[in-house]
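Methods: example folding runs. The two proteins below were folded one after another, and each record is reproduced exactly as written to the output file, sequence line first and structure-token line second.
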Amino acid sequence: MAKVSAVERNLKRQLLVIKYADKRAELKAIARNTELPVEERFAAQIKLSELPRNSAPTRVRNRCQVTGRPRGYYRKMKMSRIALRELGSQGLLPGLVKSSW
């Protein structure tokens, strides 16, 4: 199991990303629009940099839903390779068959 504080910190980041997603998208659109004056684009860039750092989507770490492990993450299953193997061996994941030879 991962540290509870690390999992909670990541959850807080996910909530901030959702909260500021619309505002961040608007400011990015203004900053990238080359038809607007330079001053207006620069002001949008300044406002974008004033948003909380943890509201950026790249700050969120993919973590296993079962154990909280940050590495070996399968996006499709939303879990780590270890949890996937254990649940697959127990037959708890439909459609997953563990091979052995």
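Second run, written to the same file directly after the first:
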Amino acid sequence: MKTRITELFGIRLPIIAGGMAWCSGWRLASAVSNAGGLGLLGAGSMHLETLDYHIQQMKASTQLPWGVNLPLMYPQTDELVALLIRHEVPIVFTSAGSPKKFTQRFHDAGMKVAHVVSSSRFAVKCEEAGVDAVVAEGFEAGGHNGREELTTMTLIPQVRRATSLPLIAAGGICSGESMLAALALGAEAVQMGTVFALATESSAHDAFKQYCISLPEDATMLALKALSPTRMAKNALFARIAAAESQGASAEMLREMLGQKPAKRAIFEGEVEEGEVEIGQVVAQIDKVESAAEIVGRIVNDYETVRQRMAGLKI
């Protein structure tokens, strides 16, 4: 399958595994790239030395295209950027900050740049900043979200009208059916987080994976709007946060409730009741842990099956 995204990144399939904190290490990213998609390392949970190690492991584990997801809100961002350039990382996905800040520097180093947005307004700013592609993420996605609360099905066609950039859809996508729907709305690839967060190769704790594959369809909700809107599972920590928010808790009060590294506690250490279980709405569609290659193969097969069925429909 060829789209502007597959041509831009040199990949065989328009499937991208999101670079998720505490999940997307070299094992997961290289497995997705080796299966024909684009694997991303999740720099958001890595210190400089850790990211350096994972980049070196990526180079040893795949000869196919790969990249790094780099949130731009951390104190070490300048050092992380320098590390990516020194290692000649081919592709970088930026988020949680202005696309203008580092795009030209990455381009000067020969790197491709995509930026994650939650609205068509921010997509236009990405085009002005000169990025190569834009990831439009609906608020069905797990983890940190935009404040607009736009669903993926609403967001993608609006972004498609607002910009001519190659477009990647994200949020609520975990199957061949949802991939076909995203492409029908104007996307040229899909980025999936939740389904790969629960893959065999994900760095997430087994307790986190087993907890998530048992969750029902109403298990997640957007919370922490006074800090940074975050979709998380409704566990014991969430219940306390929701109660505090209903009583007008301040941002500082919420920070104190969360404690140190709440996402790490849940995802990496397996404390699924007292940690921040960042996971997307589509988690209810996932009932087993599979390898990245199995996930990619299933998505491609289901996509083709549904595409052929749709081709037979006549109005």
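Comment on the second run: The chain has two domains: 4-204+285-311, 206-282.
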